[in-house]
Structure formats: structure tokens, C-alpha cells
Amino acid sequence: MNRPSVFDYLDYRSFFQDMFHFRKKKDKFFSYRYFSKKSGFASPNFLKLVTDGARNLSNESIAKIAKGFDLKKQEREFLENLVFMNQATDHDGRNYYYKKMVSAKGAGEIKKIEKASFEYFSKWYYPVIREIVTMGERNHSPEQIAALLNPPIKVTEAKKALKLLTELGMIYLGEDGRREQGDRAVTTGPEVKSLVVANYHREMMKLAMDSLERFSANQRDISALTLGIQKHQIGEMKKRIALFRKEILDLACEHDSPDLVIQINIQAFPLTRLGES
Q1: 237-244 long-range CB contacts below 8 Å, 24 or more apart?
Q2: Which of 26, 60, 133, 144 is deepest in the core (most CB within 10 A)?
Q3: Mean pLDDT across 46-54
């Protein structure tokens, strides 16, 4: 069994669990009591409480645990950001510490994939450019793509997007030199999924707000309903929204040569406290 590397983890509790079992297997005398004494914790089972999710960590306790596991400086810095990301209570905080983690020196290969996936959903134009490759002759240059987007982006941003989409297997060059969409889906671990989904929706909602000023009424559809419902109806509403999305997808698939990329946002959320009337 190889020594677990903190750089390969996106959940610090999982790292602690694996690291403890590794040390226990390597050194028979290693125990929760021994670890607490070595780290400087008064509680003999502090690490177990943290691993089980019964305790969170402070700056001081992070340093003690790093000492107990004999982590090096870079490992300690990564662990600190990992803990802060996992324990952050707001989206901006999780985003901040995640970016520090994936840019850390020594991060493993898994971080490269996670970082690319994270970046894909953090820029509104990445998914749009993936759709553009199916338009026209399918050989748009970065300059053409940059100008085609609305609002336009920089040529350097278009080049970076094409590179990322290719690395992720989202697009590829066919034998005829034309770009095609790949079948690969962008996936992330559960610890990052909430971040990328939130980033994606935030980007698109900003564009939706801007569209009120940038497009005339006949070029867009911005509408809303404010309703009073029973809580048990939420599930049925979600099912009907899912059916509507499928109908729109089927409509889009009727033509294999699109000439426009659009964004459709559908939101439904409470405006009163749940359980109160």
C-alpha cells in the first residue's frame, strides 16, 4: 500500500482516514491515542471524531494534524486549503480555496482533470463554442469565433477555449479537417460538482440579465410566474419542467446544421420560508 498523497484528495476527511490506515498498517503501535499524543491533542480520539464528521478543524488543529502525519510544507499548505474549501459555508469561499488547491505545486494528475472541468463551467462561452463547431463549414478560426459570440470575446480567449475543449475530448478534428463534437461528457467528483454547477448558472444568469438591454423583445423571451402552491407540488413541477426541457432538446435535434446558439434558463425557487404560510 502506497502512502496516500493529499494532492489526490478533494475531501480532507477521506485523506485522514486513508492516511491513518496506512500508518496503522506500517506501524502496528500507531493508534488514535498515539496520534493525539504526537500531535498535541488532549482528546485521545480527536482524529476519529474529525474523520467521522463530528468535528471541524481550525488553523491550529490543521497544523497539529499535519505534524501528526509528518506532512511536508507543500502538503501542509494544500491540506489547509482543502480543509477551508470543505468547511466553507458560501460559494465564493469554496471557489477561492479550490482555485488555490488546483494551482498548488505538486497537485496530482487528478487535479488536472478536475481543474479543466471546473474551468469549463466557469466561462459562459466554453459550452457555446462547443456548439459553434457544428455550425456552417465547421472550421471557424479563433478570430471568427471571437467575433461570432455575443457578446464578443478576445481572440486569445477563443484560442484557450478551443485548446481546453480539445483536451477534454469535447471537440476534435475529423479526417477532413473539420471540427466535430466529441461524445465525452464533462464530469467532476461530488466535492466539486456543486461548485461547477453554481458557476455555470451564475454565468448564464448574468447574461440573461444583460439580454434585457442588449436584445429587442422579438429576439428574446424573458418571462416569469409568481405563484402560491403546496409544497408537495414541487416534485410534480420539476417533472413537468424536465419534460419541457426534453421537448426543446428534441426540437433542436430536428436540424443537424444549426446557425445560432441560444441559452434557455429555467428557474423555480421559493420566495417564502419553507413550512411557513
Answers
A1: 237/268, 238/268, 241/266, 241/268
A2: 133
A3: 94
CB 59 within 8 A of CB 10: no
State residue 106's pLDDT score.
Answer: 64
More confident residue, 40 or 120: 40
Residue 89 lies in a domain: yes
Cα separations in angstroms, 211 against 18, 152, 208, 236: 49, 14, 5, 30
Count of domains observed in the chain: 1
Do residues 23 and 38 lie in contact, with contact meaning Cβ atoms separated by under 8 Å? no
- Residue 82: closest CA among 4, 161, 159, 141: 4
CA dihedral sign, ordered 193, 194, 199, 202 = positive
Rounded CA separation 116/168 (Å): 7
pTM over 0.70: no
Residue 182 lies inside a defined structural domain of this protein: no
Question: The domain containing residue 51 runs over which residues?
Answer: 6-107
- Position 47 in a domain: yes
